[in-house]
Design brief:
Layout (H helix, E strand, L loop, with lengths): L2 H24 L6 E10 L10 E6 L6 E5 L5 E7 L1 E8 L6 E8 L3 E8 L3 H11 L3 E4 L4 E4 L11 H5 L5 E3 L5 E3 L5 E5 L23 E7 L13 E7 L6 E12 L2 E11 L3 E13 L2 E9 L9 E24 L4 E26 L2 E28 L6 E26 L10 E22 L3 E23 L5 E3 L5 E20 L2 E20 L3 H8 L6 E20 L2 E12 L3 H4 L10 E3 L8 E13 L3 E13 L2 E7 L6 E7 L2 E16 L2 E18 L2 E20 L3 E10 L2 E3 L2 E3 L2 E12 L4 E8 L7 E6 L3 E8 L5 E10 L2 H9 L13
Parallel strand pairs: 1-7, 12-14, 30-34
Antiparallel strand pairs: 1-4, 2-3, 2-5, 5-6, 8-9, 9-13, 10-11, 13-14, 15-16, 15-45, 16-17, 17-19, 18-19, 18-44, 19-20, 20-21, 21-22, 22-23, 23-24, 24-25, 24-26, 26-27, 27-28, 28-29, 29-31, 31-32, 32-35, 33-34, 35-36, 36-37, 37-38, 38-41, 39-40, 40-43, 41-42, 42-45, 43-44
């Protein structure tokens, strides 16, 4: 039974009994009345059960029924005339308890009545907990994460890779329907937990921290307009179960991987305390290969360079999240939380290069980079909720402060392997320090005002103020063998992004038809200042394009949203959505000072980048049967000033520079299908297929770029319960080949397997999984321009990985059931008009 139905049933029962009592109170009677009292609690947790129903039936006249529902303390009190009664105590999904033929001729205290979950209902809970559920709302699809064995001991990124419409590539980049311009939110807000414009943190948080994922391809005006592909809102676990409960997870694997994490929660009538703490140690070996041919090489230049890159990564991460929700009144609460993350990365990259001249090996070198990175992030958050009345009027307010420091030291040493041409190029030893200080403030307020039973108005404000200061210093070996500061490339980049937004939206329902109309006004300020020894008028000569060293750009935009849903039947609907979105360039896309992990391949930001804008349409269909859920959609998106990474040969050198640019327009359209099929308790399957086409055209530095391409990706997952109650899960995915403005990308196939068994009276689970069984999760492709032809391969995590995980749960069997009974007050925030 859904949360809404539970709420409605409880409400109707309460109204019925109250009405019946009032009616009886008006009946003239001379009989003396006696009071029946008691308390109802959960038999396992020994916590009160609110809204349990007490029915008192006259044995001589069964039509005479009176009763009550329990309060927040589980207590009830009913006045009845003298007589003999059957007393029935019920709570949804629990076994009822009946006291037959009870004579009442004085006040009666039934004492503490303990109820337990019914075995039939408990079986239903287990089935639902092990399968991913999908719920369609006006502006989103909500996937409640089931017990995904392949991500046991894994990370949030691993879990996201199993959500329909979402892909996570080998270097951790998240895409929605094949589009990387996706906004990541945590519990509905930007967060340090998701990283400052990066998804690295999501590769460090444990997967079991996720409660559900909202895939928002047609965001309403409530959400920030950032992310042209849409929004992924990750809801972390915070139980509302009464009492104390939690879980402990231990895992170890190959390549070297070990971790421990714990989730605990305690709630009583006054407050709810929740905590997640975890530590993870893991090694992630990777590799890269780049074969570059230069078409216009002169006799004194190299015409081909092959780089073979080996990467050894060692990461140690600690995460701590502590919060408390305090119930100020029956209608209001204040939640405070603190998040802390500390990371220590120790990486070594070995780059072996062979330089060719006239197709013969001319020169060879080995470049070793050792990088130490230490990072600390803090986040403080306050949330205030006030349900102003019983009709759904609600006010919420949020304040969030985040700060982080990242200190990175790199030491680069390059030695000569062979020299067949007496090449006189010097090989420098280098040391790089890169310090980043990040600060972000968020202030948000939302107000909800219902009209009648089926209409609702909402308005709100959100302000984000984010600043990042990057202090970059490069020391290079001089002729005397000493390290000397390179004043030309040393710089300080101060970048600020401020966004202020107001929104309003209105939703209503007429019969089977619902709509949600919204408008958001956002002002974006992108401000940056570059402090460098290079004079501003010389930067263009050094970097090859004009650079503004002190810019302050403001963009004011309106972002309308329209969402419709039509209920064809109780479990069948059609949705239609339109939205306008913005994609703002992040700091590392703007910083013009290049990376230095390779002599020949560099990434360089572009401070001239402007935001891109998109208009998107989405038409969806959902049909839900008892054992099968089918979802589908077709979509179209037109984007202007879209970002594209252009590779070019720096004139007079063998350096290939990758630079992001605004490349005019991109049109993307496609369709997707999804199936969730649970034919039996021992077999559960789901799959999705997404086909899309995009067309890109534009001009940069006097050159025209055009690409038109079809691509697709598919995902399939099955879970089979074997004898001895062993679960076997298989996840397979394939991302089709694609073409961009400068080349092609090969397809990627991946297969994961996992086995698990519940032990210790089903309070614990032991899991074994292997990811990337065929070692096929790797990027490869070709780049072709007028100057170069390149084949490249890259693998962020090389080879198969094996992981053994042990999870122990305490007081969580009841928690699963309780989660189904919570809610009902999300209203339009979760899409009231389903």
């Amino acid at each position: 039974m859904t949360n809404r139905k539970i709420f409605v049933v409880s409400l109707l029962v309460s109204l019925f009994l109250a009405t019946f009592q009032n009616a009886q109170a008006k009946e003239p009677t001379s009989d003396k009345k006696y009071t029946v009292t008691g308390k109802v609690i959960d038999d396992a947790l020994n916590v009160p059960l609110e809204y349990a129903t007490i029915s008192i039936v006259d044995v001589n006249d069964p039509k005479k029924i009176t009763g009550d529902v329990t309060n927040a303390m589980g207590e009830f009190s009913v006045d009845v005339p003298e007589g003999t009664y059957n007393i029935i105590v019920e709570f949804i999904s629990y076994e009822s308890k009946t006291f037959n033929n009870v004579p009442i001729n004085d006040d009666l205290n039934l004492g503490t009545i303990k109820l337990g979950l019914g075995s039939e209902n408990l079986d239903e809970v287990v089935v639902r907990a092990e399968t991913t559920q999908v719920d369609i709302r006006l502006d989103k699809k909500i996937y409640t994460i089931g017990k995904d064995l392949t991500t046991a001991g894994g990370t949030v990124s691993d879990a996201l890779n199993n959500v329909p419409s979402v892909t996570v590539d080998i270097d951790g980049t998240i895409s929605l329907r094949g589009n990387e311009n996706v906004r990541i939110l945590i519990n509905g807000k930007p967060s340090a937990i998701a990283g400052y414009g990066s998804t690295d943190v999501l590769q460090q948080l444990p997967a079991d921290a996720i409660e559900k994922v909202e895939v928002i391809t047609s965001p309403s005006a409530r959400y920030g307009a950032e992310g042209t592909a849409g929004i992924l809102n990750i809801i972390l676990r915070k139980d509302k179960t009464l009492g104390f409960n939690g879980s402990l997870s231990l895992n170890a694997g190959i390549p070297a991987n070990a971790g421990v994490s714990g989730n605990v929660n305690y709630r009583n009538k006054n407050f709810n305390i929740f905590n997640t703490t975890g530590y993870r140690y893991f090694e992630a070996p990777g590799n890269g290969y780049f074969d570059t041919k230069y078409k216009n090489a002169a006799n004194n230049e190299f015409d081909r360079i092959i780089e073979d890159r080996d990467m050894q990564r060692l990461n140690r991460n600690f995460n701590f999240n502590l919060g408390m929700e305090y119930y100020l009144t029956d209608r209001s609460s204040l939640t405070g939380s603190f998040f802390y993350r500390a990371g220590e990365d120790r990486d070594k990259t070995t780059n072996v290069s062979d330089y060719f001249m006239n197709s013969e090996k001319a020169f060879g070198s080995t470049r070793i980079e050792r990088e130490n990175q230490d990072e600390k992030d803090y986040q403080f958050a306050l949330n205030y909720v006030n349900k102003l009345d019983d009709n759904g009027q609600k006010l919420t307010a949020d304040f969030q402060y985040e700060t982080g420091k990242e200190n990175q030291i790199s030491r680069i040493n390059e030695v000569e392997n062979y020299n067949n041409i007496n090449y006189d190029g010097r090989l420098f030893d280098e040391r790089i320090t890169n310090d980043e200080d990040q600060t972000e403030y968020l202030l948000q307020a939302d107000y909800v005002l219902p009209f009648g039973e089926d209409s609702q108005f909402e308005a709100g404000y959100r302000g984000n103020w984010e600043n990042t200061v990057t202090d970059y210093k490069l020391y290079q070996e001089n002729e005397n063998g000493n390290l000397e500061l390179n004043t030309e490339l040393t710089n300080v980049f101060d970048y600020t992004e401020n966004v202020n937004a107001f929104y309003t939206q209105y939703g209503s329902k007429f019969g089977d038809f619902s709509f949600l109309l919204g408008l958001r006004l956002e002002n974006t300020q992108l401000k940056g200042k570059i402090n460098s020894e290079i004079p501003a008028d010389q930067l263009e000569q050094v970097f090859g394009f004009p650079i503004d060293t002190d810019f302050d750009n403001n963009y004011l935009g309106l972002f309308p949203t329209v969402n419709f849903i039509y209920e064809l039947a109780e479990n069948e609907n059609i949705t239609l959505g339109y939205n306008r979105r913005i994609n703002r360039p992040r700091g590392w896309f703007i910083n013009p000072f290049p990376s230095r992990s390779s002599n020949n391949n560099i990434f360089q930001g572009n401070p001239n980048l402007r935001p891109s804008y998109s208009n998107a349409f989405d038409l969806g269909y959902l049909k839900d049967w008892e054992k099968l859920t089918f979802s589908s959609s077709v979509y179209y998106q037109h984007e202007t000033n879209s970002f594209e990474r252009i590779q070019e040969n720096v004139e007079g050198t063998n350096i290939i520079r990758t630079i992001p640019v605004n490349l005019s327009t991109q049109d993307r359209f496609g369709g997707e299908l999804g199936l969730l099929y649970n034919p039996a308790k021992w077999l559960r399957m789901n799959g999705s297929f997404n086909f899309f086409q995009f067309e890109t055209q534009g001009e940069f530095a006097g050159k025209s770029y055009y690409a038109k391409n079809n691509s697709w990706f598919a995902r399939f997952s099955s879970k089979v319960t074997l004898p001895a109650k062993i679960d076997w899960q298989t996840n397979a995915s394939y991302r089709g080949a694609a073409q961009d403005v400068q080349g092609t990308r090969d397809g990627i196939f991946s297969l994961d397997l996992a086995f698990s068994k519940d032990i210790l009276n089903d309070n614990a689970t032991l899991s074994l999984n292997v990811r990337d069984l065929f070692n096929s999760r790797k990027y490869s492709g070709y780049t072709i321009t007028d100057e170069i032809e390149r084949y490249s391969e890259f693998q962020w995590r090389r080879g198969q990985s094996f992981n053994l995980s042990f999870i122990y749960r305490f007081n969580q069997q009841k928690k699963r059931q309780e989660r189904r009974n919570e809610g009902g007050d999300d209203m339009m925030n979760e899409g009231q008009f389903k």
